Amino acid sequence: MLSVRVIFDPTQISRPTAIALGNFDGVHVGHRHVIAPILPQSLGDRNPRLTSTVVSFSPHPQEFFSGKLRSLLAPFDEKVALLESLGVEQLVLLPFDAELAKLSAADFMQKILIDSMQVQLISVGFDFHFGRKRQGNVNDLKNIWGERLTVIPEQKMNVGITDQAPVRISSSNIRTALAQGEIDLANALLGRPYNLVGKVIRGKQLGRTIGFPTANLELPPQKCLPRDGVYAVQVQVNQGNASAPAFGVMNIGLRPTVDGTQRSVEVHLFNWQGDLYGQELSVNLVQFIRPEQKFDSLDFLKAQIQKDCQTALRYLVAEPTLIC
């Protein structure tokens, strides 16, 4: 599979194109429905000249208008990897600045989509808007591209209790689920485990003093973190490594028992031997176990971590007999 080309300069775009338009934060199940019609396997022999292209914006329009950084389900490198895994050939990141923000819907279609990108086929979600003050919508696109436009309807999913109403598949609902520790729901809407990828850095090494050494993860600053607390996790040391993943528990929070003041992400791997400093860990969230809490002593904390390990094993392995 070819690597996805990331394009910031419109003059470097491979044309003509078949495009999926949107922000695609998280590349969740709904996003993949939007992207599917423009993938090479979908274009087939009918449109062999078209380059499969995802078109998004940098920064996110909300960041531009608010002046505040937005937490992301999939920061840049993660998004690129996810799009590459689908078979997207190029990712075009339009610079969202004052000039782009003031373009009318008509000008956006003519100058960006037609003149610059030579768009032949388009796929968008049913609620996609574009142009100054979000004036443009799918009807404007249909007036020009007609049957060459694919509009994906609202995507919902039945999750949890069978008599509950289906949940809309959206980045906002995934964020809400993560904030509430509802990992099963977040993972279902994503279509994969929510993932934290970071380099192991040196911490205060307090875990070693109570028999539970941890790997402190340095994550991309914009990565959206789930609810503070303890999680059962599945961990791959160095992405791409063919070895089997390890199991463990992860704590996100301020570590109140030791009077921590900065939020940290720490992973304890079961039965792990070896130095992890400087290595990259890919951590899949499997289950939220409990909120973070302050204990009266390190002995009470140690006893609770032992219980957390046993709880995690029940979610991670069929026969939880490992020693953590």
UniProtKB/TrEMBL annotation:
<dbReference type="InterPro" id="IPR002606">
    <property type="entry name" value="Riboflavin_kinase_bac"/>
</dbReference>
<comment type="pathway">
    <text>Cofactor biosynthesis; FAD biosynthesis; FAD from FMN: step 1/1.</text>
</comment>
<keyword id="KW-0547">Nucleotide-binding</keyword>
<feature type="domain" description="Riboflavin kinase">
    <location>
        <begin position="189"/>
        <end position="317"/>
    </location>
</feature>
<keyword id="KW-0285">Flavoprotein</keyword>
<dbReference type="InterPro" id="IPR023468">
    <property type="entry name" value="Riboflavin_kinase"/>
</dbReference>
<protein>
    <recommendedName>
        <fullName>Riboflavin biosynthesis protein</fullName>
        <ecNumber>2.7.1.26</ecNumber>
        <ecNumber>2.7.7.2</ecNumber>
    </recommendedName>
</protein>
<dbReference type="InterPro" id="IPR015864">
    <property type="entry name" value="FAD_synthase"/>
</dbReference>
<keyword id="KW-0067">ATP-binding</keyword>
<keyword id="KW-0274">FAD</keyword>
<comment type="similarity">
    <text>Belongs to the ribF family.</text>
</comment>
<dbReference type="InterPro" id="IPR015865">
    <property type="entry name" value="Riboflavin_kinase_bac/euk"/>
</dbReference>
<dbReference type="InterPro" id="IPR023465">
    <property type="entry name" value="Riboflavin_kinase_dom_sf"/>
</dbReference>
<dbReference type="GO" id="GO:0003919">
    <property type="term" value="F:FMN adenylyltransferase activity"/>
</dbReference>
<comment type="pathway">
    <text>Cofactor biosynthesis; FMN biosynthesis; FMN from riboflavin (ATP route): step 1/1.</text>
</comment>
<dbReference type="GO" id="GO:0008531">
    <property type="term" value="F:riboflavin kinase activity"/>
</dbReference>
<keyword id="KW-0288">FMN</keyword>
<keyword id="KW-0511">Multifunctional enzyme</keyword>
<dbReference type="InterPro" id="IPR014729">
    <property type="entry name" value="Rossmann-like_a/b/a_fold"/>
</dbReference>
<keyword id="KW-0418">Kinase</keyword>
<dbReference type="Pfam" id="PF01687">
    <property type="entry name" value="Flavokinase"/>
</dbReference>
<dbReference type="Pfam" id="PF06574">
    <property type="entry name" value="FAD_syn"/>
</dbReference>
<keyword id="KW-0548">Nucleotidyltransferase</keyword>
<keyword id="KW-0808">Transferase</keyword>
